[in-house]
Amino acid sequence: MAILKIARMGHPILLQNCEPVTDPGAPEIRRLVADMMETMEDASGAGLAAPQVYVPLRLFVFRVAEARGLEDADDVPVGNTVVINPEVELLTDERVLRWEGCLSIPGLRAAVPRAPRVRYRGVDCDGTVVEREVSGFHAGVVQHEFDHLNGILYPMRMKDFSLFGFTEELARAAAARQAG
Length: 180
Ligand code: NI
Hints:
This protein is about 25% helix and about 30% strand. The protein is of the alpha+beta class. It has helices at about 25-40, 135-150, 165-180, and strands at about 45-50, 60-65, 80-90, 95-100, 110-115, 115-125, 130-135, 165. It has 3 helices and 8 strands. The strands form 2 sheets. It has a 5-stranded antiparallel β-sheet with strand order 1-2-3-6-7, sandwiched between helices. Strands 4-5-8 form a 3-stranded antiparallel β-sheet. It binds nickel (II) ion. Nickel (II) ion binds near residues 102, 103 and 148.
């Protein structure tokens, strides 16, 4: 396994529409998925999409960690998961603001409008269908990673840029608010 280099915002590969994976079980896809999971863990990320490691294919990995401070009663921890050739269906017209970061936009966070509930479907490397209806953090991370496959980065979803900042400053401001 290997830690992969992560593309940062500004690199054109992040704006590309990715191609479907023709053989999810191919050795090079299995290796890519294992390396992406290792890279995500190494970077303390919640998700990573293939174009972020310079591979313009329709697959992403993610996890919902226990330590996430699970925001939703339906939100349960999920171990490392791969979704290949995903489809995502937003289950409501409602949008909620969710705080997000991105390994391709290091050091920054923002509140991004997302559907609170989605259904997604894809396959893993064994061709097993992964199909879930989810809410909370899980729904947010899936929308974020799916966007990467269509060349969309979270700032492109934002409406209120006053809710965009450096993680460090946002944490300082939140601590000051609590103290004050
Ligand atoms: Ni991202």
